[in-house]
Amino acid sequence: MTRMTLHGPTMGTRWSLRCDAEVSLDAPALQRDLAAAVEQVDRQMSPFKPDSDLSRLNRAAPDRWVDLPEQILQVLAHALEVSRLSGGAFDPAVGALVDAWGFGAARDAPDAAAIQAAAQAAARPAHRWLELDLGAGRVCKRAPLQLDLCGIAKGYAVDRMAAVLPRHGVAHALAALDGELRACGTQADGQAWSVALESPQAGRRAAHGVIELADLAVATSGDYRRWFELGAARVSHTMDARRAAPVNHAVASVTVLATDCISADAWATALLVAGPAEGLALAQRVGLEALFLLRRGAALVEVGLGRFAR
Questions:
Q1: What pLDDT was estimated at residue 235?
Q2: What share of the chain is helix, strand, coil (3-state, %, to 5)?
Q3: Among the residues of 92-184, which ranges form H helices?
Q4: Confidence (pTM)
Q5: Most distant CA pair in the chain: distance in Å?
């Protein structure tokens, strides 16, 4: 066995894979297949690519069925389920809000008129206004909706990376894309993979703690990586469609464990949007293992469930 690390660019960040594999592993072939897997997700689900399947769906008129590939249909189905279970805390129909506040493809600064228009449309959650026909491979918007899958697509991309590994005989690996990771098995010596939990500090990277993963995925959502100052307020890139505004509360970050990374990613976003009290109640109701980091003045307070409980 040999330890190997592969990586490449995607979605404005980088994917990586650390694995313990036989020395006979065809590393260039594995690199190509991993890059193709994440590129397929980006090509279908990027809100920044005008020719993506997501952009095509966003341009479609209401009440018109749109044929889509199987992968984006799977992600949309999962997104709608989390949207329903979370009462709209996770809502893929936040694309107009994301653009209006300057975090999307349309503009790089807030636009008051666009914010007002997006706020009026925000009362239409995707789980009520988006219809999926999985058997026929098609989707229909029952109202004008602009979808954004950034809160779930990276987790799905990590799962697609994990699906590549058995074809290459890799049973011990840690796949990662930004703050989403999935451990496939353990390290070759039987030890779990050690993963640092990032401290939610703007402008610097530091570890808040370490968790160990074996056949488990983890994702973290926070307000400290993409934001800007508007007067005395800090505006986060994560949108709360129910308030038609950016997230603004004491939760600095939420980390979620799940068996797959698509679930960890979506639920971390949902709990961040839900906030401290509602988010904790939601995590308990759904049965999630989650760690909330709450700002209390200059300090961070941990509130955890499952293996994060103290």
A1: 62
A2: 35, 30, 35
A3: 95-100, 112-121, 126-129, 153-164
A4: 0.93
A5: 59
Dihedral pair phi/psi, residue 174, rounded to 5°? -130, 110
Identify the residue whose tokens are 């797959």: 260
CA–CA separation, 202 vs 243, rounded Å?
24
Phi, psi of 73 (to 5 degrees): -65, -40
115-146: pLDDT as tens digits: 888 877 667 889 999 999 999 999 999 999 99
Residue 221's identity, in one-letter code, is: S
Burial class (CB in 10 A: 0-12, 13-18, 19+), 200: buried
- Predicted confidence at residue 204, as pLDDT, reads 62
Q: At what angle do helices 70-85 and 153-164 cross, to 10 degrees?
A: 130
Query: What's the CA gap between 72 and 104, in Å, rounded?
Result: 19
**Residue 184 backbone phi and psi in degrees, to 5:** -105, 105
Residue 39 near residue 50, CB atoms below 8 Å: no
Written as six digits, the tokens of 187 are 């390290």
Other Cβ atoms less than 10 A from the Cβ of 296: the count is: 8
226-282 residue pLDDT tens:
555 555 555 667 889 888 888 888 899 999 999 999 999 999 999 999 999 999 999
